[in-house]
Amino acid sequence: MMTTGYLPSLVAAKVELAIIPKKFNSLVVCDARGPRPRYPRVWKSRNRIGTISKSRKLVECVKGLSNVKEEVYGVLDSFVAWELEFPLIVVKKALKTLEFEKEWKRIIQVVKWMLSKGQGKTMGTYYTLLTALAEDGRLEEAEELWMKIFSENLESLPRIFFIKMISIYYERGMHEKMFEVFADMEELGIRPDGKIVKMVGDVFQTLGMLDKYEKLTKKYPPPTWEYRYIKGKRVRIPVKQLNQSDKEAITNLEGA
To answer: What's the pTM value of the predicted model, to 2 decimals?
Structure first.
């Protein structure tokens, strides 16, 4: 009789193939090329620095410089020399820090350097530059920037730019230019907020233009509601309630 069975050599070969190694090597086997080791990428650093620490370092570098344009631009160029992409977030955070510290000259230098690189051409950047120029007393440059932004973005200019220019002229007593900006605002169909109406109304009262003041208050009556952000949510609050809370805060300060 014939008996079917496996030869000992075949059984041993099958057992060897079935054994799974416990430790895997970090090798990648390519097609007909053998194992190839994996090395870490050269351009990736394991010790990464966050944007907050980078922005703080940028602020410290800029604040210790003189007002010479070439020196400031040279330091800023060396700061971003080893970056693969322009560190826009780092520069924006540094500008916020400088704005909080009221370093208006440094803000002007950093923003102009960033715009010369073709980066950060947004409305927020132009608004920061406009504020810094006005606070630094460079009114002519602020007006040139305003005319440039106004002519290039005639139908899409945000209302905060009109508020900023009217407040600049209001603080300096330049009533005619303030009226021009307000007229442009009405012509474009942009509704002024309570701050603009109050400033223009105060100027009308000081100049004795009571008829225009009455027309202004009839056309733009004071709002009954205002929107405030509480814990990240937009909440509508009555103006009377806000006025009462402001009065209570003033009385508490006077009592203290």
So the answer is: 0.71
